[in-house]
């Protein structure tokens, strides 16, 4: 999962990045709002974590511009601003959550998980039932068969997340290339190898293929 972090405080930026990397997230960090805004259109991110007062354009301006362009990528603001008017402005612009500095790493972890769960799944979904006794745990982002976790590589986990979060819709090769490999060129044969490896660890029926459309994991709830 790709996360963009905008934070101009050196210590905060590094500590957040290092902590989230230990949780398995891919982090691109920026100190300047204008640079971060440009990056949003150069790469697919699943979540934005934005400080408000930064050089260049502010976190507020970034979200205002994104929402005006009908871009609903989830956003968490991190800020030392505590005035209710500032908090209200963030929500009115369209952020998904707010964290006040200082905060603990675990608080950030839980808030990220909650935003991801509410945006890509639903708040009531802890276990998403799939075919053949498989289920996906939205808290741990792990795939299970019955109660046994399926041992997947990081890229395989990212593919599973992407397919499940698209809720019974086919995901194209181009979208896989863009979201999983950050638009780095991967030919279709190489992507098929990743899909085959997942099927070998799970079942041939878990991932459905349709020529011209891509891949899909059917959800039963």
Distinctive features:
8 helices, 221 residues, Arc Repressor Mutant, subunit A, 5-stranded parallel sheet, 4-stranded antiparallel sheet, Rossmann fold, alpha/beta, 2 domains
Verbal overview:
The protein is an alpha/beta fold and 221 residues long. It has 2 domains: 2-120, Response regulator (Rossmann fold, 3-Layer(aba) Sandwich); 128-217, Arc Repressor Mutant, subunit A. The chain has 8 helices and 11 strands. It has a 5-stranded parallel beta sheet, sandwiched between helices. Strand 8 and strand 9 (148-149) form a beta hairpin. The longest helix has 16 residues, at 105-120. The chain is globular, with a radius of gyration of 18 Å. The mean pLDDT is 88. InterPro entries: CheY-like_superfamily (IPR011006), OmpR/PhoB-type_DNA-bd (IPR001867), Sig_transdc_resp-reg_receiver (IPR001789), WalR-like (IPR039420), WH-like_DNA-bd_sf (IPR036388).
Count of helix runs:
8
Structural class: alpha/beta
Count of individual domains: 2
CATH architecture name of the largest domain: 3-Layer(aba) Sandwich
Strand content: 15-25%
Biggest sheet statistics: 5 strands, parallel
Along the chain, the helix and strand elements come as EHEHEHEHEHEEEEHHHEE
Look at the structure and give the CATH class of the largest domain: Alpha Beta
Q: Which sequence of strands runs across the widest sheet?
A: 2-1-3-4-5
CATH topology of the largest domain: Rossmann fold
Name the average pLDDT.
88
CATH homology group of the largest domain: Response regulator
GO molecular function, one term: transcription cis-regulatory region binding
Protein name: DNA-binding response regulator
Modified residues (4-aspartylphosphate): 51
Domain Response regulatory: 2-116
